[in-house]
Structure formats: C-alpha cells, structure tokens
Amino acid sequence: MLASADPDMLAAGSDASRLEDRFLISGQDFFDYGASEIRAGFISLVPKTRMEELVRPLMLQERRQRTLMALTLSLLFIGTLVYLMWASVSNWRARSCMREPASASPSFRRTAPMVSIF
Asked: What is the pTM of this model?
C-alpha cells in the first residue's frame, strides 16, 4: 500500500492481503493502462464493524416488511377460505329448503319454476 486516506487506521506500506479479516475490500486493478507498465490498483476499505452497523437497520426493516407481508397474505388466504365455505353453506341451505319433505301433502309443496336451457 503506497498511500492511505486515514494513516491512523491504516498505515502506508501495509499489506492489503492481511486486511481481509478486518475490512471489506473492493477495488480495481489498472494493468497496462496507457503507456505505463506499472500495475496500479485502487482499493476501498470499509471496516466490517462499520458495515454491520450500516446493514443492521436495513435488515430489521426487511424482516418487519417480510413478517407484515406474510401476515397479510395469510389473513387474505384465511378470509378467502372462510368466504368460500360460507357461500357454500349458504348455497347448500338454500337448496335444502327448496326440497320438499317426504311427508308433505301436495297442497304444501314448494315448486320451483321450470327453466329450460335448450
């Protein structure tokens, strides 16, 4: 390492390969850039502890949103099933009221109107 923006944290002359356990390293090498034969590489170092501090609020928000979405979809699914069961039971009751009891006399029979589709 030739230069550092924060010499107190990272001194010039440090070996970048030894810093991987404490820092998140990202960068780009510039080999054969223009007429120069010097291999130059620029890297950015972010302390892993600082990165965890930056990521923690995002992770908490994402977990809250995922929990809320799961709860919403579960309630929607349960609501749909309850509605379908209620509609099925209501339809069954309506059809069972239309049936005539076996012991009913002919004068008390309910008759449904005759509908022909064809």
From this structure: 0.49
d(CA 64, CA 105) in angstroms, rounded, equals 65
CB proximity list for 76: less than 8 A, separation 6 or greater: none
Domain ranges of the chain: 16-88
Name the nearest CA neighbour of 30 among 18, 39, 21, 20. Answer: 39
Render pLDDT for 57-84 as a digit per residue (tens, 0 to 9).
999 999 999 999 999 999 999 999 999 9
C-alpha 109/C-alpha 98 separation (Å) is 9
The single-letter DSSP state of residue 11 is -
